[in-house]
Amino acid sequence: MTLTMADVRDEARRLHALYAERPADLVAHLSQQIGTVKTYAQVLVGLCGLTVTVTGFSGAHMIRAGSAAAALMVAGIALVLVGLVACIQTITQLRWVSQDLHDDLVETAAIVITRRNRQQRRLSIAAVFVVAGLACYLGAVVVAAMASGTNFAG
Questions:
Q1: How far is CA 138 from the centre of its chain?
Q2: Could you read off the pLDDT of 88-105 as tens digits, one per residue?
Q3: What is the pTM (predicted TM-score) of this model?
Q4: Residue 9 near residue 52 (C-beta atoms within 8 A)
């Protein structure tokens, strides 16, 4: 769902009304939302790092299992790395809420909400790449296990 600028302005006005008597709390609320987006990005980065680390331990086994497992592993790692790059780009685009602080706090809120929404969209796309990469990676593990004759039934 894409929010329009009218939606953003409406949210900004509602937040401003909620914090009318406490403007510093409004700025803190907006900062917290940006912080939440950054935390989400860090979780995805951690997941990507874990995937790359596991590949170091199991990658050779998957490659020995044949070209299908190797191709799935490489595709999985490539997709995870695309997601990782998108996360890092989002994290490194630092802009402090205080840099967008205007005398009109509705305007400040609208600017920060727009940035929050843009970063959230980018991270959602990054998450799709990470999940697709993990799915390929899981496929590689399954193919490698089947090639090694592992009995899944017990």
A1: 20
A2: 999 898 888 999 999 999
A3: 0.84
A4: no
